[in-house]
Inverse folding.
């Protein structure tokens, strides 16, 4: 029997986590369910959930101080800040300061063991720094993303505010549960509504 989804199917569909772009890269084709008449690609929700689950299980092996989240995309800034507040994980919402991971002489130097990016293209400086120091990269990828330099791809609509909000809420909730900080979804310190509000 298949594992239950991380959130009900309706929740995924309501925030448009499955709506891709009109552009499709070779790598992302494996996650596409169908192409709509208007040309937009529709991602397979089952595969989104499977990859999200795999990413969360992998990320939960790390301590919060070993994880770094980077997201330059404006639609994800609020969700990333809420995620940081809920979990204590370090985040750069907005421009990633170059060399933060690679130059120990910088005041803001950070040692991390894993990097999460909301989009490997606008967040490429962080991805390249992660490659230089040899840490894994987990990336939210839409149908138009390339997966070079990404160790674990989570297919999803990485441009929508609500879609990004849902991802960061699920990740925060599962991280806190795995670390024993909360026992149920109801104990989540910041509610889903806050993550996905316009």
């Amino acid at each position: 029997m298949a594992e239950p989804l991380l959130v009900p199917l309706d929740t995924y569909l309501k925030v448009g986590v499955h709506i891709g772009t009109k552009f499709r890269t070779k790598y992302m084709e494996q996650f596409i369910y169908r192409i709509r008449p208007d040309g937009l690609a529709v991602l397979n929700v089952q595969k989104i959930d499977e990859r999200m689950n795999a990413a969360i299980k992998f990320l939960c092996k790390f301590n919060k101080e070993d994880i770094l989240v980077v997201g330059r995309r404006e639609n994800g800034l609020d969700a990333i800040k809420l995620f940081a507040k809920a979990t204590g994980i370090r985040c750069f919402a907005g421009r990633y300061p170059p060399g933060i991971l690679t130059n120990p002489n910088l005041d803001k130097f950070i040692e991390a063991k894993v990097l999460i990016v909301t989009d490997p293209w606008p967040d490429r400086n962080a991805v390249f720094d992660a490659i230089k120091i040899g840490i894994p990269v987990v990336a939210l990828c839409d149908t138009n993303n390339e997966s070079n330099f990404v160790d674990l791809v989570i297919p999803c609509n990485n441009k929508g505010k609500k879609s990004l909000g849902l991802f960061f809420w699920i990740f925060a909730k599962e991280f806190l549960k795995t670390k024993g900080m909360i026992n149920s979804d109801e104990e989540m310190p910041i509610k889903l509504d806050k993550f996905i509000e316009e």
Summary: The two ends are 37 Å apart (CA to CA). The helical segments are 9-14, 45-59, 77-87, 124-133, 161-178, 192-196.
